[in-house]
Amino acid sequence: MKVVKVGLLGLGTVGGGTVNVLAKNGADISRRCGCEIIVSSASARDITRPRICETDGIQLTTTPEDIINDPDIQIIVELMGGEEPAKSLILKALSNGKHVVTANKALIANHGNELFAVAEKHNVTLAYEAAIAGGIPIVKAMREGLSANSIEWLAGIINGTGNFILTEMRDKGSAFADVLKEAQELGYAEADPEYDVEGIDAAHKLCILASLAFGMPLDFKSVYTEGISTITPLDVTYAEELGYRIKHLGVARKTDKGVEMRVHPTLIPEKRLIANVDGVMNAVVVKGNAVGSTLYYGPGAGAEATASAVIADIVDICRQLDAPSDSAVPALGFATDQLKALPIVPIEEIITAYYLRLSVEDKPGVMAAITTILGNNGISIEAVQQKEPEQHGASAQVILLTNSVVEKSMLIALAQIETLDSVNQPAIRIRVESLQ
Ligand code: HSE
């Protein structure tokens, strides 16, 4: 059987997981792709550090250039993360005629257009399944399985750490910082956990999904991003009382005005399957105009789960090694000369329903004043609840669910509501998606 040599740049959680899965399942993987995959070299900053995998038989080096310049290695797997030196190394590897597999979502979202062009120029593949939603084969599904469809929208829980935090807050009432620490210990969190908590990691992934869905070049700067650090257990509880779950959702939607790309906390009806995706699990709903709604679910982070996606890309490349270069699936699922930039809808122009929580004085006329302002701005109310103050003199909580409204009207209404003497604090405002 033909041997294909792979070099790993990075031997951390996912690199170690890749070596372990190849060791565990090598025989079946070889039967699938018709060649034996051998990790011959791996680079790491500190090669003396203990690893989660066996390193016997792997040439370890602190110099990644040794790997990308090794003529015996056909496939480079970049698992270092971060922009540099990963970008320069990938560019050099592609120019050297090597295929590259990466899990680096920041790199693809920010520099994918350039990297894919270089790969195409050198007739090699730059594969990135592991960059989005860990082990879920969502790139494969969107590029190939859904190619008959015009995609209307997609919505995903695409950051395992954030979902793990929200789930633990809800189930155990755990403090934010404790859960984050646990996620870091389990190897789920990014090197800078702000990327998880503030939605940047999810925005990288959403940007790539939107390009796969709508056939447009990657445009990370146009993704609107809000994190979960402002979500309180109180809102989690009130949302549940209304029949909703709060999830950190990435949404990409094609509308008459253009494409929406946004990541923010979102109330989802609890009866939707995706509302019940908990812990480190990820899920993406993709609505195609032929197939309808489809749901992809699985672990969004972790050593072997992410390695599963890395190895699937390696297998795809092995199957193509002797094929004509133009037979490969295009990087973003659309022929490169057919990618088209589309107008992006600014966040003020998007239309969603809202959950509002207002801290108000418990006195007559307050509710009427609030609902009058909402009505004057064309906002109709779907549900209202009032929670009595916990102690004498404290604020009462008014919780409202509205119908869909353009965001700028909601902002105007809230600015007017916040000028009322009886409203004590800025409103809590969370968008609601029905996902139908
Ligand atoms: N930090 C990421 C997450 C890792 O929690 O989803 C997988 O991309």
Report on this model:
There is one protein chain. The protein is α/β, with parallel strands linked by helices and 436 residues long. The chain has 3 domains: 2-135 and 303-338, NAD(P)-binding Rossmann-like Domain (Rossmann fold), CATH 3.40.50.720; 139-299, 2-Layer Sandwich (Dihydrodipicolinate Reductase, domain 2); 351-432, 2-Layer Sandwich (Alpha-Beta Plaits), CATH 3.30.70.260. 35% of the residues lie in helices and 25% in strands. The protein is built from 13 helices and 17 strands. It has helices at residues 13-33, 64-68, 86-95, 105-121, 138-145, 160-172, 176-185, 194-197, 200-214, 233-241, 303-320, 366-376, 407-418, and strands spanning 2-9, 35-43, 59-61, 75-78, 99-102, 126-127, 151-157, 224-225, 244-255, 258-269, 281-288, 292-299, 351-360, 381-387, 396-402, 405-406, 428-432. The strands form 2 sheets. Strands 7, 8, 9, 10, 11, 12, 13, 14, 15, 16 and 17 form an 11-stranded mixed beta sheet that branches. Strands 3-2-1-4-5-6 form a 6-stranded parallel beta sheet, with helices on both faces. Strand 14 (381-387) and strand 15 form a beta hairpin. Residues 134, 159-161, 188-190, 196, 201, 300-301 line the site of L-homoserine.
